Amino acid sequence: MTTSSLWQPFTLGRVELAHRLALAPMTRSRANPDGTPGPLTARYYGQRASLGLVITEGVQPSADGQGYLNTPGIYTPEHVAGWREVADEVHASGGALYIQLMHVGRVSHPDNTPHHRQPVAPSAISAEQDMFTATGPQKTPVPRELSIDDIQTTIVDFRHAAASAIAAGADGVEIHGANGYLLHQFLSPNANHRTDSYGGSVENRSRFVIEVARAVAEEIGADRVGIRLSPSMPLGGIDEGDTEQVRAQYRHLVGELAGLNLAYLHLHHVGDDELLRSFRDTWPTAVLVVRYGRSREQISDDIDAGLADVAPLGRFALANPDIVERLRTGAPLNEVDPTTLYGGGEAGYTDYPALTRA
């Protein structure tokens, strides 16, 4: 690890960062039943504010957007009030808060949503995934295909959620276009069989993602908007085709998104470094890169190689609220308890120990 590269300051949109680390978004399923984050959530994010850029777990922009039990929302006054406490805690500890807007699309089950309706998606094709519900695992059902009017309503939902995030005191939002969720479903030919202007060609499959990003940028300012993508990520039953198909899809998409001048592009990267380099060459602002299985020594590799500006941390940060200090000093790291990742209370959430000070 090139220590100096991680500790250089950086400007991301309207946020001044003291270093190149950030908190990656991670679902923790600890919101209240109505989707409002509570005081424990404020404490969790406040503990990790030394990471500078704090990107929250996925937050649904509407009731249709919820997939999992006890995930938070950002579309009611109660949600806004809950997130205001989180933002205040993060700001008081010196961090900046970006709320990730995550519409899961077909990766859902009616038992997990407040309205108990059929999930929605670009096409009526099940993700064929096991979904944990209050009564145990169930298969994700066949979703309802979104009409053109439904698509426009969903874009309005994203716009409203972004405005609500800013009203709650967040510094910006990240649009979740990755990991098998709704925007990723529109991009993927095995999930999107539409024959209208939102399906078929590379350009048409990109349209919904671009329209969501444009609407959110218009609502709160492009310099307060990031977007997360995951080319070739097979989560949620997604299959985007061979390497050349994926490159064609994402080179077009990223090229179009680059024209919006968003604050950052966040890539959940699974191995096509040639494609990653083309994004770096195309994208006009910050690039964030997460890779599975990085060792402590590899955290700065993409920054050192000129492929990224910021390195978000997932499990390292989950188990080590003071991960920045531990990396600076070479201190040992806590290990993640996998049994407490989702749901529950303080255990495995806010009780990971910080370094003992003499």
Estimated share of beta-strand residues: 15-25%
Q: Rg from C-alpha positions?
A: 19 Å
The major beta sheet can be summarized as: 8 strands, parallel
- The strand line-up of the biggest sheet is 13-12-11-10-5-4-3-14
Give the tally of structural domains. 1
Low-confidence stretches: none
What structural class do helix, strand and pairing data support?
A: alpha/beta
Under CATH at level 1, the class stands as Alpha Beta
How many strands in all?
A: 14
Written description of the protein model:
It is a single chain. The chain is of the alpha/beta class and 358 residues long. It has one domain (3-340): Alpha-Beta Barrel (TIM Barrel), CATH 3.20.20.70. It contains 11 helices and 14 strands. The protein has helices at 3-6, 39-47, 77-92, 148-167, 182-187, 202-220, 243-258, 273-282, 301-304, 315-319, 323-329, and strands at residues 10-12, 15-17, 21-23, 53-59, 96-101, 120-121, 130-133, 136-139, 144-145, 172-176, 225-229, 264-269, 286-291, 311-313. The strands form 4 sheets. Strands 13-12-11-10-5-4-3-14 form an 8-stranded parallel sheet. The chain has a two-stranded antiparallel ribbon with strand order 1-2. A hairpin with a 2-residue loop joins β7 and β8 (136-139). α6 runs parallel beside α7 (243-258) and α7 (243-258) runs parallel beside α8 (273-282). The radius of gyration is 19 Å and the shape is globular. The relative contact order is 0.14.
